[in-house]
Amino acid sequence: MTVVKDRVLDESTDRRTGIYIAGKWVAPANRAVFAVDDPATGQIVQELLDATPDDAVLALDAAADAQRSWALTPPRVRSEILRRAFELVLEKRDVLASTITREMGKSLAEAHAEVTYGAEFLRWFAEEAVRVHGRSMITPEGTGLIHVSRRPVGPCYLVTPWNFPLAMLTRKVGPALAAGCTVVIKPADLTPLTALLVVEILAEAGAPDGVVNLVTTTQPAPISTAMLGDERLRKISFTGSTQVGRILLTQAAQRVLRCSMELGGNAPFIVLEGADVDAAVEGAMLAKFRNVGQACTAANRFHVHHSLADEFAAKLAAKAGALKLGPGSDPGVDLGPMISDAAVERTIQIVDDAVQRGATVLTGGRRPKGEGSFLEPTVLADVQPGSRALAEEIFGPVAPVARFDSVAEALAAANDTEYGLASYVYAPSLDVGHAFASGLEAGMVGVNTGLVSNAAAPFGGVKSSGLGREGGTEGIEEYLTTRYAASPEP
Ligand code: NAD
């Protein structure tokens, strides 16, 4: 991302300025812009306005003004708007996928898969919008009635990361709108362009002006401080690193704000004695190299029973080494670039640290020559305890393989992290796999599968991986509050 402070948007600039308030793209005069880059080439894709805290407050003005009428809009109407948005996302899948690839780097095939996955949250929450239940009961004394109803929390601030520019947004905006909340969206400055298209799709689907607002910025901290300090805001939903999540939680505590936090992970991938190695390698390819390893659910470290470790590592290295690396828009590419040069450098340092502590590089480990933020898919064997590759969230295409001797040792290694988002276990049977999984400290576990995400399932973590769930029947709960009304028995 390049900050271009000496230029302002002019009339020739794309109408999607990066600030969307009350149904309009706005372009305040004499405002600095920043550039969104293509990580495959380093070229500028588009320039956007760099929003300030004042812009964010205007966006919140619009969200607060629209809140009451949106909350009173019949759930069926809200549902039909989301359903129409789902259809529009699929109709516009080509432009959405190519925008994701250009700003984030992933292959076009993966970008199409993200569009399909992300669209499902709009369909799922269109269906959930009309299934928000309350209850009534006679008091135990028999003299009164208790009515319990569910109400929208109110205006929400939605902050999203760069790794899934569409799906991380629909996973928040779908349930928020379904519940009757208005929103201000702040996408990651590395990948804001897909979010601009989603905002227009929601408007085209019928979301009234002010229900969906958006600001893009290279200065998230002051904007978040202004938003979280404003008494009209009722909730923050954040997806990103645990480090930033902690800052936002501290600020949110001052106003006792509702919070959903989808934070970092360090997913263990356990291969138990007697597991099918070929199936485990298939699952590992999906869990590790999807999105170039830049997924919070990515398998971070592989703990393999000593009887299978050499075979597993060799087969994984053969498959990883055969992946085609290149610009995501080139046909047949499996792995696009990482998000930035800085991400490549950090990942190489993690590989070097593992090698210094005794690991062997079976494949990859280098940055190919030429332009773009590329890193070869990498498999490391015999990674030793204490290595950064086991302790830190790698967020890149590096698979460290370590050995264990006993089930107790495997479980202790799996849980030896402050995180608890995803986890994976490959076992000789589902019964053995589920028995092992019951001891894992994680919000999600894949048993004999390398993929855990589904719009119908509750996504989220325990420990320092976050608070709350997105998707499933739980997802809409995050945007609802409970009201109790008392009356005498008629
Ligand atoms: P990040 O925390 O750097 O940024 C996330 C968002 O927060 C961006 O929009 C960014 O602009 C904003 N931000 C950054 N600093 C801020 C500040 N001081 N105040 C307010 N906002 C701020 O994370 P990232 O690099 O974009 O994403 C990678 C991280 O996200 C990884 O740790 C990954 O595990 C996590 N992640 C989690 C999930 C999940 O569902 N649990 C999903 C995807 C990514």
Automatic annotation (TrEMBL):
UniProt GO MF annotations: glutarate-semialdehyde dehydrogenase (NADP+) activity; succinate-semialdehyde dehydrogenase (NADP+) activity
Active site: E262
EC number: 1.2.1.16, 1.2.1.20, 1.2.1.79
Record-linked Pfam families: Aldedh
Keywords associated with the record: Oxidoreductase
Superkingdom of origin: Bacteria
Enzyme class: oxidoreductase
Domain Aldehyde dehydrogenase: residue ranges: 25-483
Family: Belongs to the aldehyde dehydrogenase family.
Protein name: Succinate-semialdehyde dehydrogenase/glutarate-semialdehyde dehydrogenase
Organism: Kribbella aluminosa
Lineage of origin: Bacteria, Bacillati, Actinomycetota, Actinomycetes, Propionibacteriales
